[in-house]
Design a protein that fits this description.
57% helix, 19 helices, 430 residues, alpha+beta, six-stranded mixed beta barrel
Length: 430
């Protein structure tokens, strides 16, 4: 006995109605519309899987590149300086998830070379300690990070910044800084409203790094922490950078450190450094999910017209089944089976297509770019130049489930309409 014969008759009839008829042109047309609905659901599901995978990959890739130069957690002193940073580091290292700590200082300035001026965030670091909290040393493209020695006034800049200034290792650049508060006060007392001139300091490019994140490669520079403190006019680091065993736990660990560390300290995890960017990505993901789900809904609700046409075409069959003793519930089940099978088939094909494309997007997109001679992503605009993909099976499950649910909901009205067919009226003109 075949598997089909073991199924309830509602399933058997529903399966038969799903297949194309060989004798009736109307049946073939209805089956064609069913296949169009299957294709619509499949394309909508595949598009949703691919788009969410690309957005997940984009977020993952940019986050990884950010954390190559950012610490998992930063601890600041509210006074702008942290003279007792060693004690604060020791307290932070007592936390079981904190693996390393390093002091830092930051100075906002301008870099000048041959008439070209670019803004820069100069971060003072201790090269030996920095290797424990970030991956800058592994992203060096020229020179070495340990060339940043105290009182050497050397600088390591990003590759994009080096291109903009047209400098290389060994070249000299000029650092322009705002006058410190003492200079401003002295100038105000002696010259009234005259503005104090900016301070300048010649620096030597000792290295070039490339994190792969355009914002940091074009605006970030490193110097020895002693030099940065002297340039900023302070006597202590601005704070401490921490590295964790699990970066995903950074918000929770930051909250715990905020509650346990003494003094007027401010603790910030990596997700808050670019909080606006992360919030925008999450908002875009939600909006794309809603928009593409509506496309899947349009394809799913095409089943309504398909099933309505099937019900009108099969009224004689429905009447015969009712005459033979089929209940309205059984008739309704037949057409729900038909519509649900179309939804399941469309969702399955869409999941298969979407997963294949998402897993091979690093091959598909470059092939299209080479074939058409275009570049989809500009590094200056999108921070990265390649389209990444991060397929998450939880997303695949949600998308497939939503598609099947929408297809099932689309079967309710036509199936209910079929259950209300009256046998006598349906057979009157047959």
């Amino acid at each position: 006995m075949s598997i089909t014969h073991k199924l309830p008759y509602e399933w058997q009839v529903g399966l038969r109605y799903t297949r194309a008829g060989k004798r009736s042109g109307r049946n073939s047309f209805i089956s064609f519309i069913s296949m169009a609905s299957v294709a619509g659901i499949a394309l909508g599901v595949a598009a949703l899987i691919v788009v969410l995978s690309v957005m997940n990959g984009f977020q993952k890739e940019v986050t990884a590149r950010m954390l190559s130069v950012l610490a998992h957690i930063e601890v600041f002193d509210a006074r702008g300086q942290m003279p007792d940073w060693r004690a604060s580091s020791a307290l932070a290292l007592r936390h079981p998830e904190v693996r390393a700590a390093a002091p830092f200082a930051e100075v906002e300035a301008m870099l000048l070379s041959d008439g070209v001026m670019k803004p820069v965030l100069l971060r003072g670091i201790d090269p030996a300690s920095e290797a424990k909290v970030s991956d800058v040393a592994r992203h060096m493209r020229a020179g070495r990070l340990d060339a940043l020695r105290p009182d050497g006034y050397n600088i390591v800049i990003g590759r994009a910044l080096a291109r903009a200034l047209d400098v290389g290792v060994g070249d000299r650049v000029t650092l322009l800084l705002a006058s410190n508060p003492a200079d401003l006060q002295a100038t105000a007392q002696s010259a009234g409203r005259a503005a104090a001139p900016p301070r300048t300091r010649p620096l030597t490019v000792a290295g070039i790094f490339e994190a792969g994140h355009y914002e940091f490669d074009s605006t970030l520079a490193f110097a020895n922490i002693a030099d940065a403190e002297a340039l900023a006019g302070v006597a202590a680091p601005a704070g401490v950078r921490l590295r964790l065993a699990d970066m995903a736990r950074a918000p929770q660990v930051a909250a715990e450190l905020q509650a346990s560390l003494p003094g007027e300290l401010y603790v910030r995890d990596w997700s808050k450094v670019n909080a606006v960017w992360f919030a925008a990505v999450q908002s875009q993901k939600r909006m794309m999910f809603i928009i593409l789900t509506m496309i899947v809904a349009v394809a799913a609700f095409n089943l309504v017209s398909t099933l309505v046409m099937t019900v009108r075409d099969k009224q004689a069959d429905i009447a015969i089944l009712r005459t033979l003793g089929a209940s309205p519930r059984s008739v309704m089940g037949i057409f729900m089976v038909q519509g649900s099978l179309v939804g399941l088939l469309g969702a399955a094909l869409g999941v298969l297509l979407g997963v294949v494309v998402a897993l091979n997007i690093d091959i598909i997109v470059p092939f299209i770019e080479r074939s058409l001679g275009v570049q989809f992503l500009s590094e200056e605009v999108y921070l990265i130049s390649e389209i990444p993909s991060d397929l998450r099976w939880a997303d695949v499950g949600w998308i497939g489930g939503v598609a099947v649910l929408l297809a099932f909901l689309a079967t309710l009205y036509p199936s209910w309409s079929a259950a209300r067919v009256k046998p006598a009226e349906a057979l009157r003109y047959e």
